[in-house]
Amino acid sequence: MTDATKTHGRHVVVLAHPDPTSFNAAVAEAYCQAVRKSGQEVILRDLYAMNFNPILRNDERPDRPGFEIAPDVQAELAAIKGCDVVAFIYPIWFGLPPAMMKGYVDRVIGSGVTPHQVQDRAGQGPLTAGHMISITTSGARDAWLDEQGQMESLRQLSSRYLFRAFSMKSAHYLHIGSIVEGMTERFADQHLFDVQEKARTVCATVAAERYGAAAPPTIFDGS
Length: 223
Hints:
Number of strands: 6
Helix content: 40-55%
Order of helices and strands: HEHEHHEHHEHHEHE
Low-confidence stretches: 1-6
Strand order of the largest sheet: 2-1-3-4-5-6
Radius of gyration: 17 Å
């Protein structure tokens, strides 16, 4: 890492999709491209490609005597240490994130933080004082998800809880529905453009902080 990238900001993109040719993978690449064009550094953590183990063992739980942080979790904590932004990218399956992503939150994001600390907003996880963006996809249409009350649940599940629990500066959320086989290239390109616009917004926030501008207020952007 150069001094310039340290100054301009650093993003970590956490991708959870088993297909390396999926639309989610394209979303991750679009986000990374936008960050690089903004002059900031980005690191991709492809959980399936890494064969990340999502299972939280009992001896990893911080509320258990003598708990230990596993070596693979230590490696992830080192990767995201000091980053300005963490971007989570994953599909919604049966109303929930993939087990791989949930396991990453359990084992890495919540590493060393007890439920009591979360309730008291005293948890000092690896995302504390940083920014977060969650980008999710689904085969279902947004309108259908809204009718089921699922859109608000996704916002709560994907960003708002972590934003509040770990005292983050901001949390952004973008959901893309109707991602199915046979979707048109124009449809896909429009949503990839939206992803890049979201990335540029977050990059601008980081740049303003890095160059000494007034820090933006703590926000949750669920749009």
